[in-house]
Hints:
Strand content: 35-45%
Order of helices and strands: HHHEEHEEEE
Number of strands: 6
Structural class: alpha+beta
Oligomer: single chain
Number of helices: 4
Low-confidence stretches: 1-24
CATH class: Alpha Beta
Amino acid sequence: MKRMIWAAFLVAAMVPVGAAAQGSDAEDTEDASIVIEAKTFMAGYAGDLIGGDRNAITNRYDRRGAWRVGEGEKVFESWDAIRRLYAEKWQKPASFGWRDLSYEPIGPDAIVIVGLFDWGLEDGGPPITLSYTALLTRQEGELRIRVEDESAAPSKP
């Protein structure tokens, strides 16, 4: 009898743990919602890059500034510095395409995106492939880039 009671207790104790591990329907809906929003953001970002829309690209960044990391560097840039970069130095790609993007929601207002992109060179050479990681956070009701890593593949020996 004690074994049956103990077994019933264990089963009852395990059910909430399993349910919590799977997440609630509300969490699943929030995750799906931010993933859809992030996919729309990334498609628009690609369009802005291809179109060379410097203002639209700048407006995709967090107004508090953003961390730019990659290839052994870590720099925090103010939004004004990001705006100047795109206004004065940035050149649009000859072609552009995201590849193999993965979306990891980390809450209702933040998502990490990991993947690759191909950047077409103006000289007609083959596009270069870079890895890409971004943290998008909601600001003023819109997702914006807070952390961004664009890293080229290391040179082959």
